[in-house]
Amino acid sequence: ETGLSDGTVALAEQRADAFLQAASDLDLSEVDGQLVARVTNWSGHKLPTGYPEGRRIWLNVRFLDASGELVGEHGAYDWSTATLTEDTKIYEVTMGISETLSGATGLPVGETMHITVFDQILMDNRIPPVGFINAAFEAINAQPVAYTYDDGQHWDDSVFEIPANAAQAVVTVYHQTSTREYMEFLRDANVTDDKGQIAYDQWVMHGRSAPVIMDSGMIELGGAEPVPGDVNGD
Questions:
Q1: What pLDDT is recorded for position 16?
Q2: Each residue's pLDDT tens digit, 49-97
Q3: For residues 198-207, b (16+ Cβ closer than 10 Å) or e, as one string?
Q4: Could you please report the per-residue DSSP string of 172-223?
Q5: How many C-beta neighbours within 10 Å does residue 231 have?
Q6: What would the DSSP string read from start to end of 59-95?
Q7: 7-45, pLDDT tens digit by residue?
Q8: Half-sphere exposure of 200 toward its Cβ, with a 13 Å CA cutoff?
Q9: How far, in Å, CA of 67 to CA of 62, rounded?
Q10: What end-to-end distance do the CA atoms of the chain give, in Å?
Q11: For residue 44, what pLDDT is reported?
């Protein structure tokens, strides 16, 4: 017996959602005919944080015409298959296996999802916390990789081309705990028992790690001011 009930689990989920929504702010602007979406990290740690077991944050950008019809989208997510189009900014960590580790383990050189069998970080573009200093993060081997943040920068800007007939843009920041790709890796890489399949089946049964909205906002295009719409009420 775990002592958990449907009620306590629901409360835990509500608290987790509240933490996510308080972790960042979203600001939208139009600069030189382009949409700029700034995500600011107020969480106190990298955003997203934790083990890189499929965790990610991304921007869904929907451009609408004057009648409200969709004329362009970045970061579209198929909820039925848990598939994300990668034509957007995705904050995540990518791990890798070197030739040395490959020789010791027999695993192929390059990108891997083994969170315990890797010796390289190939990419880490997660947004730093308040007080970020590059030298301090390098000293503990926690620096950004294949991405750049200035000292003191705890935000990141993403720029999107605006379609010619777009009248407004709706931007949503999503957080997901475990991607389809990672869960399929657990399922397929475990050849010693059925634990990988069990984990995958539970993931499917419980909604495929449904993304959670951290922030959202809307901006009228063509020089108009942004319309308040942040889920944090900012």
A1: 79
A2: 988 888 999 999 999 999 999 999 999 999 999 999 999 999 999 999 9
A3: ebbeebeeee
A4: EEEEESS-HHHHHHHHHH--SSSHHHHHHHHHHHTTSS--EEEEEEEEESSS
A5: 16
A6: EEEEEE-TTS-EEEEES-EETTTTEE--SS-EE-EEE
A7: 887 887 788 788 788 899 999 999 999 999 999 999 999
A8: 16
A9: 14
A10: 42
A11: 94
Name beta bridge partners: 156. 39
Count of other CB atoms within 10 angstroms of residue 1: 3
Q: Which two tokens stand for residue 136?
A: 């301090």
SS3 content of the chain, % helix, strand, coil (to 5): 20, 35, 45
Cα distances (Å, whole numbers) of residue 66 to 30, 61, 167, 220: 17, 16, 5, 10
pLDDT surpassing 90 at residue 206: yes
Name the phi and psi angles at 72, rounded to 5: 180, 145
Find the helix or strand (DSSP H, E) in which 24 lies. Answer: strand 24-31
For residues 132-143, give the mean pLDDT: 97
Tally of residues, the chain = 234
Is residue 69 within 8 Å of residue 58, measured between CB atoms?
no
Amino acid type, 188: D
Give me the percent of the chain exceeding a pLDDT of 90: 82
Q: Is 106 exposed, middle or buried (0-12, 13-18, 19+ CB in 10 A)?
A: exposed
Confidence of residue 233 (pLDDT cuts 50, 70, 90): very low
